[in-house]
């Protein structure tokens, strides 16, 4: 039998789930104990006491059976009623048809009424209100009478004490358990915050703590974070060093080319410019999203600046749509470089490009669309990999490129805890590139 449907009703957070694991057994135990207590205490004890009172009532009724209709009941049955601590008096016949009365929370009263009705059919009505006295309307041989006696003779004293103690100590132990649970879950929440921050490109101070297993997980996270940081640093230094070393021979080549004739120099200078562009792309990829610390940034102003710079460079780029407002924690230089790469790709492979920004309470989305040929769905994942060129002939026709534009944008989006999504533009029928970042 599958219990997959239970997942829809389970809490999401670990604190809520731990609280459920803690409270569920307590509640179940309380319910079981309450049911057993009601059966053994309310029913069992009350039935035994009702049987005793039933025999005493029969003695009183036997004494009434031999009395004339006009006899003084209190004096006539005193020898029997007084030792039994019962009161007897005449009542109107209409009181025999009165409804049974009891307090709403008098559960033992239900047992009393049911038991005495079965044992003594002459009892026509019960009045258990007030809790101190029981009043029975009885159709005796001497006429309608009321028999009264102390309620404590037919019900257990203070039957609620066990339930009160059980609830009180359950609440007390639950509060203590919650305090202990919070202290145990605090290292997990700290580890989750540190991992989330690192996934968004921020290095939050973190020291492993808590139980042995949590310390082991925290230590593994710190080691993993250090290895990733060393790898990123090594990649950056390697690409930066290679790119820097290549600039010197390129500079000498430019000087040498300047001495050649114009006809011979033009093609060679184009090759040198292409190599310079490749080196710049390597440097951008090496930097990744590591430029500066995250800060509160206006995404609309950032996108507006990118569009205006592209327009000044003669590129057909427009700011199409802006939705929402506010600031988001971003690395402005890195995010601007990502948008520049998306815009450059859009105008390289299409006739025009449109940029839009959408800000909501939960996310930020930059969108760049073009009217170019787009990217087939089965190749979009490959397009985001470094040094991937889907169509070499087309890329060469459109200008130099090493396949790092989308890879840089993807790297920067991931460094902000977001993602780069590629799709088909419904408006321009070309490529749609979305950078989506959770706020």
From TrEMBL:
Residues 182-233 form the HAMP domain. Coiled coil: none annotated. GO terms for molecular function: ATP binding; phosphorelay sensor kinase activity. The chain crosses the membrane at residues 162-181. The keyword Glycosyltransferase does not apply. It comes from Tateyamaria omphalii. The keyword Calcium does not apply. This is histidine kinase. It comes from the Bacteria. It catalyses: ATP + protein L-histidine = ADP + protein N-phospho-L-histidine. GO terms for cellular component: plasma membrane. Residues 241-439 form the Histidine kinase domain. Its EC number is 2.7.13.3.
